[in-house]
Amino acid sequence: MHNDLANLRIERDGAVAVIGLNRPSKLNAVDLDTLLQFNAALAECEHDESVRAIVLSGEGSSFCAGIDLTALAEERIPRSFFPLWEQTMWLSENLPKPVICAIHGHCIGAGLQLALTCDLRIADARARFALPAAKEGLIPSLSPHRLWRFVGLGRARRMVLFNETWDSPTALDYGLIDEVVDSGREGVLERAVAQAKTFAEDLPTISFAMCKKALSLPRHPDEDLLAGYLADQEVCLTHPDHHKAANEWLARVNGKAGRRT
Fold first, then answer.
1. What start and end residues bound the annotated signal peptide (predicted)?
2. Total domain count for the chain?
């Protein structure tokens, strides 16, 4: 696999591919370049028969703090980002191989959206989970459609509509994550890779792929649902509420930059 993509760090450990988001100074916030590189990496994993399991992780202090709000507010993220993001989430969710998410620090917005597409989620005890898109004047892609199937509709409403943030023990109790490891990023990644190696060695590839397909059939978002989401997101992106949130974000960012100079 290519390992020279600027916004990703890709490593191989035997039959396991480890894809790390690599914008640590931005808490691995996703911009268009990151999304394009990540989409390409997933597609390569899908077609590379020597890759039998995938681990998703983040470099630095967090897994992923969401979409790059500065790039979005400065209109450096085009509208094409949003259908490509959902297509990438679908690709991750439907890879015919085990996909494990190693979570530490922030798992916010786009980070949680990505984690929801994985087969297993292993988190550090100090990780935090949220979907704050509504506060930002946006829709968190089709992740509400995924979230409530893990945690129930009532809990999903509290996170999506009222911006609840959950810690790892709460996320484990609610069924959002599968395991908590109290040893920081390295411990979480080590545990995720070990689990991926076990799956790579023990799981029959064809039957695993077919069983995963069967599990996903009832929850596939159809084309009408995707089209409806994209139309609603366009309304949000052009609404004064989002413009206000974007300007407030830029003011905070620029204020912090000014204090550092």
1. none
2. 1
Identify the domain containing residue 67 by its residue range: 8-184+206-224
Residue 195 inside a domain? The answer is no
Q: What is the C-alpha to C-alpha distance for residues 175 and 228, in angstroms, rounded to an integer?
A: 28
pLDDT tens digits for 42-55?
Answer: 999 999 999 999 99
- 47 part of a folded domain: yes
Residue 31 has pLDDT above 80, yes or no: yes
Find the mean pLDDT for residues 135-150: 92
Q: Cα 38 to the chain's mean position, in Å? A: 11
Q: Report the b/e string of 8-39 with b at 16+ CB within 10 A.
A: bbbeeeebbbbbbbbbeebbbbbbbbbbebbb
* 248, part of any domain: no
